[in-house]
């Protein structure tokens, strides 16, 4: 019980730490930089302010409001999943990975739910400010996700003799992302690299917990 309690608190602390850092950086960028503005830190690292309507790294598959609702539901499932892992005294490193994914998901959900109603619009010439709730640039659930981390590690032009891509410019790494995206990516990467077997085994716990929940509900109805 003590171990489950400590691992549960570890997950909560990780989520809170990522959320606080993520939101501080986003608010600082949003309220101090115009859209598209870029600050050079090194030749391979820039703070470049952009916004997107989608999920990690700007991807958007479904309409914005549906996508936001699905992310909220997804986060709820992960919270339930982590609670099962903590009760079962699962591997600490695995719980850390899942907690990073949860923190990243919630971090971008906050932007989508709240930013549209509490910020004015960021433009190429105007910096956004806090506004009274409901007087922002969009409705609830329609806020844009703030991105700012850009790592153009190297770039070059493909030789003209290469078919299809000859003469084209190549930039690595081109996506602009945020702390929440980084938490999701790190969590997934470490999970796949070191905990793929643990991931598969965890489904036995989920199945058992779900069966127990069904039995409990069935006994209460009878």
Automatic annotation (TrEMBL):
<keyword id="KW-1003">Cell membrane</keyword>
<comment type="function">
    <text>This protein specifically catalyzes the removal of signal peptides from prolipoproteins.</text>
</comment>
<keyword id="KW-0472">Membrane</keyword>
<dbReference type="GO" id="GO:0004190">
    <property type="term" value="F:aspartic-type endopeptidase activity"/>
</dbReference>
<protein>
    <recommendedName>
        <fullName>Lipoprotein signal peptidase</fullName>
        <ecNumber>3.4.23.36</ecNumber>
    </recommendedName>
</protein>
<feature type="transmembrane region" description="Helical">
    <location>
        <begin position="65"/>
        <end position="86"/>
    </location>
</feature>
<keyword id="KW-0449">Lipoprotein</keyword>
<feature type="transmembrane region" description="Helical">
    <location>
        <begin position="93"/>
        <end position="118"/>
    </location>
</feature>
<dbReference type="Pfam" id="PF01252">
    <property type="entry name" value="Peptidase_A8"/>
</dbReference>
<keyword id="KW-0064">Aspartyl protease</keyword>
<comment type="pathway">
    <text>Protein modification; lipoprotein biosynthesis (signal peptide cleavage).</text>
</comment>
<keyword id="KW-1133">Transmembrane helix</keyword>
<keyword id="KW-0378">Hydrolase</keyword>
<feature type="active site">
    <location>
        <position position="147"/>
    </location>
</feature>
<dbReference type="GO" id="GO:0006508">
    <property type="term" value="P:proteolysis"/>
</dbReference>
<keyword id="KW-0645">Protease</keyword>
<keyword id="KW-0812">Transmembrane</keyword>
<dbReference type="GO" id="GO:0005886">
    <property type="term" value="C:plasma membrane"/>
</dbReference>
<feature type="transmembrane region" description="Helical">
    <location>
        <begin position="170"/>
        <end position="195"/>
    </location>
</feature>
<comment type="similarity">
    <text>Belongs to the peptidase A8 family.</text>
</comment>
<dbReference type="InterPro" id="IPR001872">
    <property type="entry name" value="Peptidase_A8"/>
</dbReference>
<feature type="active site">
    <location>
        <position position="181"/>
    </location>
</feature>
């Amino acid at each position: 019980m003590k171990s489950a309690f400590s691992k549960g608190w570890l997950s909560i602390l990780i989520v809170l730490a990522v959320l606080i850092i993520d939101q501080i950086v986003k608010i600082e960028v949003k309220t101090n930089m115009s859209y598209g503005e870029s600050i050079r830190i090194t030749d391979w690292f820039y703070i470049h302010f952009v916004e997107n309507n989608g999920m990690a790294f700007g991807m958007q598959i479904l309409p914005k409001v549906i996508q936001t609702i699905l992310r909220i539901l997804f986060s709820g499932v992960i919270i339930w999943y982590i609670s099962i892992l903590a009760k079962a005294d699962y591997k600490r490193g695995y719980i850390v990975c899942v907690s990073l994914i949860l923190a990243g998901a919630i971090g971008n959900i906050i932007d989508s739910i709240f930013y549209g109603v509490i910020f004015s619009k960021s433009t190429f010439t105007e910096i956004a400010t806090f506004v009274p709730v409901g007087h922002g640039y969009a409705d609830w659930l329609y806020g844009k996700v703030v991105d700012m981390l850009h790592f153009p590690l190297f770039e070059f032009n493909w030789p003209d003799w290469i078919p299809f891509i000859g003469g084209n410019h190549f930039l690595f790494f081109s996506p602009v992302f945020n702390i929440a995206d980084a938490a999701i990516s790190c969590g997934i990467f470490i999970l796949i690299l070191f905990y793929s077997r643990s991931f598969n085994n965890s489904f036995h716990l989920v199945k058992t917990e779900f069966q127990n929940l069904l039995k409990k509900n069935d006994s209460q109805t009878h």
